[in-house]
Amino acid sequence: MIKKLNARNIDAKECFYGHKACGGCGESLALRLALKVLGEEAYLSLPAGCMAAVSFIYPNMAFKNNAVITPFASTAAVATGIAAGLEALGKEAPLSVGFAGDGGTADIGIQSLSGAIDRGEKFIYICTDNEAYMNTGIQKSGLTPFGAATTTTPAGKAIHGCVTEKKNMFEIAAAHGITYAATASIGYPEDFLNKVQKAKECDGPAYIHIYTPCPTGWGHGSKITVDLAKEVVDTGLWFLAEYEDGEFRLNRKPGDFKPVADHLKRQARFRHLSDEEISQIEVMRDRKWEKMLKNWG
Amino acid sequence: MSEFAFLNGNEAVAWGVRLSRPHVIAAYPITPQTKAVEKLSSFVQNGEMDCKYLHVESEHSAMACSIGSSSVGARTFTATSSQGLLYMSEGLPYASGARLPIVMMNANRSIATPWNIYGDQMDAMHVINSGWVQLFVEDAQEALDMVIQSFKLAENHDILTPVMINVDGFVLTHTYEKVDIPGQELVDSFLPAIEKAPHLMNDQDPMSLCISAGNQHYMEFKIKQHRDMFKVFEQLERIDRDFEKSFGRSHGGAADGYRNEDADVILVTTGSVTGTARVVVDSLREKGIKAGLVKLRLLRPFPSDDLYELIGKASAVGILDKNISFGFEGTVYTNVNSSLLQKGYRGRTFNFIAGLGGRDITKENIEEMFSALLEQKGETVQYFNMGCAL
Ligand SMILES: Cc1ncc(C[n+]2csc(CCOP(=O)(O)OP(=O)(O)O)c2C)c(N)n1
Ligand code: SF4
């Protein structure tokens, strides 16, 4: 039985500090929390993206762990290469972990992620989802939600923000028959920590998709990062779920959703949305939940 | 105990890799390299090699996996060709900049479009500035031996630079030759287990790799890398001498001369075409013509000193290129010409472009090249064996 983690028994050690992320950065919080569970022995792979940019600035290295910046498309490939190398050198059960943003995961890195899951090697992949390419200046990614304004999908007169919906990365990972997959949010840190713990213990590839608000890209106060990450689950716009032993499971089934409009309007990227567009977002949410409740119960 | 076998270049490379005992191989198939990766997989599947073979989904990932495994200190091999090399090219400077001693076979092949699977050296020239050692071999035996030597070279702590062994597509990869496969014990004593470089990832003193460096530091990293590259000449020669002591054969250092000492005219070649050129030089010599040959084994680092020493006295030099840098000339020519000029060479230089897309380079073509050199006639850049007038 895996020991449940909570605020009291969490490791006090820091493995990620002195980095240059913006105040209130959700991604850096996700990394910091994950490393408390993964520990110093984890080997880390990070592609281009904010987290690589803020933590490897010579001569200041922010990771206490072994860590490497990977070519943008190849977080999972480098991570499995590390695992294979360590195993071949005789290290028992090496812990190799990739951290990539939504762009590095759902767009450019999806091929190498798919290939690595398919090989069945033991490694952990954590997608820190801030719903856009932040490091290059807030452009649309495959995980940018409908309606969000980014610098490549601005709230224009003809087109009102992003017109596509988020790619279902969690389900895509699960569809590979992966050993373990989960969604998480930094608004529910204990849930996240325990999912990382599960991923660490599991014997095969594991994928965790964590929702990580970005004050700079989303246009919200740095104080409310965690708040927004909790609210998004409570509004039903994001969900906490797991895929294990071939089965999906919802970890939280909210009775009533909190109002979507209030949540969205706290972020500059959604401020242009009309009431009609907000209702459209609600319809999409309800459709998604209907499916999830039916199929994953 | 060594044994003779009838092997093609791909199989010879696979044997060289097997004998070098890598920890990890990550490769993706592409003609004309496929037989090498198939052979290596079968060695692994049959338990004849104790090694992790990663069945990656692309060349980009083959290079990325290699970066991962090499960064923890594992001896790592990969192989590719043509479009595959181009596809992995993003990772090449990562590997060299992080000073990872990966060894790769590149089966030289043309680049699309038009699509063409046959041999030329466009692919290698495309990535000549990637910070990899670029080595060209003449035959299957040299290919096998150079895999073993390349690990020793790349893993040397003064070098720590990845090595690309270029093996001409089809001409070498698919042609069978009698090859001496050295015994495992002999190879083990020549090539000891990899010694982990201090900058690599390790449990005792965790490292950050492939870091970023701003304008106040980047240049120093790059100049250090550049300077270390020059150490390859000396180490390669030393390795080759040791190799000769153990294995009884030598392949030389960065460049090799053939009947060049008193030659009036010299042809500079890379790779398999050298064999044909040797035959032509011999026949010209029989006719009393003072023809000679210089085989460039290394294009990076570029052996300027050796080259001048081998060529210096000839009145004209031809450089055979199986590639074009569009809008200019052949890449080997650019390099040789520039370096000879710097050394004060006074003779004329010609660029002979031939063999693109697997077009034959016949003995007659090479004879024509020599007559152009003897008469010092024609344009500086000349094309050979053209099928139709353009
Ligand atoms: C091959 C390649 N293409 C483009 C880039 C430029 N680039 C660097 S970071 C980045 C976006 C990263 O976005 P994401 O993965 O979502 O991470 P975030 O910055 O949001 O953490 C891009 C496009 C690159 N580094 N490499
Ligand atoms: S831009 Fe966003 S993701 Fe990037 S460091 Fe700042 S807050 Fe974090």
Automatic annotation (TrEMBL), chain A:
Domain Thiamine pyrophosphate enzyme TPP-binding: 49-210
Alphabetical keyword list: Oxidoreductase, Pyruvate
Keyword Aminoacyl-tRNA synthetase: no
Top enzyme category: oxidoreductase
Domain of life the protein comes from: Bacteria
Enzyme Commission code: 1.2.7.1
Taxonomic source organism: Spirochaeta isovalerica
UniProt name for this protein: Pyruvate ferredoxin oxidoreductase beta subunit
MF GO annotations: pyruvate synthase activity; thiamine pyrophosphate binding
InterPro entries cross-referenced by the UniProt entry: PorB-like, THDP-binding, TPP_enzyme_TPP-bd
UniProtKB/TrEMBL annotation, chain B:
Key words, A-Z: Oxidoreductase, Pyruvate
Domain Pyruvate:ferredoxin oxidoreductase core: 263-366
The species this protein was found in: Spirochaeta isovalerica
CDD domains reported for this sequence: TPP_PYR_PFOR_IOR-alpha_like (cd07034)
Pfam families noted in UniProt: PFOR_II, POR_N
Enzyme class of the recorded protein, top EC level: oxidoreductase
One GO term (biological process): response to oxidative stress
Protein name as catalogued: Pyruvate ferredoxin oxidoreductase alpha subunit
EC number assigned by the record: 1.2.7.1
Domain Pyruvate flavodoxin/ferredoxin oxidoreductase pyrimidine binding per the UniProt entry, residue ranges: 21-232
SUPFAM superfamilies: Thiamin diphosphate-binding fold (THDP-binding), TK C-terminal domain-like
Alphabetized GO MF terms: pyruvate synthase activity
Domain of life: Bacteria
